[in-house]
Structures are given as C-alpha cells and as structure tokens.
Fold:
Amino acid sequence: MKLSQFAAADRLRALALSIQPLSPGDLARAAQHLDQLTKPLGSLGLLESIAAQVVTILEGKVDLPLKKAVYVFAADHGVACAGVSAYPSEVTAQMVRNFLRGGAAINVLARQHDAELTVVDAGVDAEFSESAGLRAMKVRRGSRNFLEEPAMTDEEVSAALEVGVLLAEEAHDRGVRLVVAGEMGIGNTTSASAITAILTQRDPAEVTGKGTGIDDAGRNRKLNVIRWAVRKHFPDGRNTGPLEVLRRVGGLEIAAMTGFMLAAASHRQIVICDGFISTASAAVACALAPYLKEYLIAGHCSEEPGHRFLLRQIGISPLLRLNMRLGEGTGAVLAIPIVESALRLYSEMATFASAAVSGANS
Structure:
C-alpha cells in the first residue's frame, strides 16, 4: 500500500529518530572480551573494532553464519540524455536482465558468499516479465533530466524512499542480519557527483570522475552538466536539506537505497556500503539520522574521486582498496568475509583463562 506524501514524511522522521547510538557499555564489554582472547592486545587490528561494532549492533546475539541479503536497486536517469555516460541508457534494462539470468559480477559474488540476491526495479525505463529474484516496485520510468527541472517530485521521492523501507522491513522479518545495497543506473555517477558536491561543499571538479569509463572530453561534458545543475538548483551554493538535494539532483534508486539504509539501521541490521552511488545514499541517510553511521561498514573505496569525500563526510573508513568502480554491490559483498571472520574470531577463539595460557606480564 502506498503511503501519502505526508504519511511517508512522518514515517521517515520516525525512522530517523528511532536510530540510536550504539551503547558505549556494550562496546566496552565487547572490547574487554577481545582483550581476553589468546593473542597480544590489539594484534588483530581493524578486525577487533569490526567485531566490537558488529557484536554491539547485534546486541550480543551472534548466530553464525549470518543470514545475508544483497539488493540491487535499478533506475534510469533523465540526465543520461546529456551524454554523461559511455553507455546508452538502455543498458540499465539490459543489465537488469543480466542480473536475473545470473550473469553479472554481483551474481557471482553473491553466490560465492551465500547472500540472497534481489533485483529491485525502482525506476527503469522498461518493463520486465515476472521473474524470480525481481521486485517490480517502479515509481516512474526514470527520473527527470535535472538540467531542465528537478529529478523528482516530492511524491516521487517519498515513494522511492518507501520502496527501500519496505524491503528492509521484509528482510528483517525474514531474519536477515547483514544487508548490502547495490545499484544499477546509467547516468547515476552524474547524480551522485552532484549530490556529493552539495553535501560536502566541494567543487564539482574534485568529486567528478569518469564513471563508466568516459574519455577526457566526456568527463569535461559531464562536469559541465554537474556545474550547471548545481548552479540551477542551488544558486546560493547552500545545502537546502538532504531530501531536497535528493529531489533536485538525485535518482530513484539512490532515494530507495536511502530509505533502505534508514530502515535497516532502525532494525539493527549490519549495513555494508558499496561504492560511490551507495555511499551517496548513505550520506543522505546520515544527514537525516546522524547515528546511522554507527551501523555502517564501508566495504571499499572506489576509484571515483567523490567516494573518498563522502566517506570522510560520514566518518567511516573503507575495509578494502581494490581500484574498483563497478557498483552493483560488488565491493560491499567482497567485504562480507572480513566481517564474518571478525565475528568468528570473537566467538570461537579461546580466552587466556579457558585455554590455561598465561597472559602478558603487567
């Protein structure tokens, strides 16, 4: 059932307010347990902070292996008609069909790491036959060209956010404890770059990359599009609020991922961010609910220059640096075994007392 615009706004506010900071006491108890394991203090490095964070998110209820789910949110972008991508806009629909056939990189990695995969049509400019693994939740057939008008109306932003909220709630009801939000949408690095420029107050040139692999001329064209859009929609250079940024220069899949992350954190699910587009959604979500960042893990840092500015804005550090720029959720899924390894070490290593091993000299 679709919510009215006002009901959706109230629900979003309630979600944001429901996300509370992780308990300092629980974090301290997790750290104390890690210090008692048969190893030198701190010798597992970042794995120890990951373990403490995740155990606290899960409120100490660590049931391994974790039930994991990957959602690939797909939508088209009106701004793609401005020549900002190396690929035509019909590739969005073609890749959705590839996902459904199991032939994309995210399919391979999700299978390898035992994560259920769902493809979400949030706004693809095409129609699809019913298929296992597809959720048809189209808000409209692509966002508008934000060179000419806002990408979405208030009602469309609310509807797209609600898509993500509903999916996160369904995942929670199925017992999913770890979620990944990936994406597919020709033109979406242009949207993410515009969002990043506004949220971080950086020059568009600093946060705009080559996306799908455009040449220097294409990158200059893309940069000009972003500069023009930022001047048009934010003439005084000020951030008018995260949802308004999303409405004016965002995308339907970016909005859906924003709602997804908010709802997932409200249900104390572990949220692994993927690349530039996914992290743009996370930055919008964190602007609405600052404590959300405590439920986030940055899977990797992509080659897109804007990604590192968004990670810095949120205040999270990437686990991996693999020079990737694919999207789809691939970088986040590659981080799953690191998270699960941290949890296994926390749960299965002996303590000095249980193993009758002498501790370090004081």
User: Anything to note?
Assistant: The first strand starts at residue 68 and ends at 75. Strands lie at 68-75, 115-123, 134-136, 178-184, 270-273, 296-300, 318-320. The two ends are 62 Å apart (CA to CA). The longest helix spans residues 154-173.
